[in-house]
């Protein structure tokens, strides 16, 4: 794309979002290939700075807000999430999932915690982990949530990380399915199964903590619960 167009697009998009007129912001339409590019770039940058300065911090904050994560860092802009169907057939049509550490941590958690569940049940467990990432009482990364308490016998949040058994992936197809689920969820697929759940347990156990949180769903052999955000973290 022409550099002139890139620069113009960046501040015209802000103008459209903020509802600010661009009467004083113009870009050269010169197409002479022999013209020196430096003066043109300088002129465009100057116009962009002038325009951004005229918008004001409040408007710019509204534009930037969706792309700032809870730590204040600039978040990666993600593509529109793919619509999800909770079936193996749907997953089989997706390409092999690739990604960074968080995808691997979530895929492993689904494999060791929920590979015996239905596809829907595995999506539900993924929701719990990502809901914790968003919750102020838990780590703010997938790997941080999955490995919280790891190394302390029976003090971890996810049993497989502290049960003393080697974490060996022997069912590659099951892992690959979990990785596809992990990618879909990390990429922003809607969390519509567990109503914001942050905890779950199997129907085979009855832990004491389940009396403290409201039950939100039962999917397969898992029962889900939601931990409220403490008042001190509530938005004013």
TrEMBL record:
Residues 1-23 form the signal peptide. This is Cell wall hydrolase SleB domain-containing protein. It comes from the Bacteria. InterPro entries: Cell_wall_hydrolase_SleB, SleB_dom1. Pfam families: Hydrolase_2. Residues 116-225 form the Cell wall hydrolase SleB domain. Keywords: Signal. One of its GO terms (molecular function) is hydrolase activity.
């Amino acid at each position: 794309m022409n550099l002139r167009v890139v620069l113009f697009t960046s501040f015209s998009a802000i103008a459209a979002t903020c509802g600010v007129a661009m009467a004083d912001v113009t870009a050269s339409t010169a197409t002479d290939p022999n013209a020196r590019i430096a003066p043109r770039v300088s002129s465009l940058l100057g116009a962009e700075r002038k325009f951004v300065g005229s918008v004001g911090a409040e408007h710019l904050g509204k534009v930037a807000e969706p792309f700032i994560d809870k730590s204040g860092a600039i978040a990666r802009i993600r593509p529109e999430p793919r619509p999800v169907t909770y079936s193996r057939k749907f997953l089989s049509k997706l390409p092999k999932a690739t990604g960074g550490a968080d995808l691997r941590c979530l895929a492993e958690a689904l494999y060791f915690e929920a590979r015996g569940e239905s596809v829907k049940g595995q999506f539900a467990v993924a929701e719990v982990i990502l809901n914790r990432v968003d919750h102020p009482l838990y780590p703010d990364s997938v790997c941080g949530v999955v490995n919280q308490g790891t190394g302390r016998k029976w003090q971890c949040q996810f049993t497989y990380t502290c049960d003393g058994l080697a974490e060996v992936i022997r069912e590659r197809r099951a892992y690959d399915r979990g990785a596809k689920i992990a990618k879909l969820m990390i990429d922003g697929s809607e969390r519509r199964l567990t109503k914001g759940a942050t905890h779950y347990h199997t129907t085979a156990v009855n832990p004491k903590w389940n009396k403290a949180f409201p039950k939100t769903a039962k999917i397969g052999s898992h029962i889900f619960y939601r931990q409220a955000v403490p008042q001190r973290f509530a938005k004013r």
